[in-house]
Design a protein that fits this description.
Elements lengths: L4 E4 L2 E4 L3 H6 L8 E6 L2 E6 L4 H6 L22
Antiparallel strand pairs: 1-2, 3-4
Protein name: Antitoxin MazE
GO molecular function: DNA binding; toxin sequestering activity
Organism: Treponema berlinense
């Protein structure tokens, strides 16, 4: 996959190919992790924190209680 470095203000920028962005759920404004190591740049979609994931739970998308079966030891429910 190739892309072109372009001037962006006083900095340089890379365009992220749309296929990679779609496959990795990256949109305009998404945070990403950039790791520079031994002359290489690796880009990862930033992992969501537990707080970020819980903020996405709404009354419309929350699932009901899940039964895990009967107790098999001395569990108390």
């Amino acid at each position: 996959m190739q892309t072109v470095v372009q001037k962006w203000g006083n900095s340089l920028g890379l365009r992220i190919p749309s296929l990679w962005a779609k496959d990795n759920n990256v949109r305009s404004g998404s945070k990403i992790e950039v790791i520079v190591e031994k002359g290489k740049i690796t880009i990862f979609p930033q992992k969501k924190s537990l707080d970020d994931m819980l903020a996405m739970v709404t009354p419309e998308n929350i699932h009901s209680e899940v039964s895990t079966g009967n107790a098999v030891g001395k569990e108390e429910w």
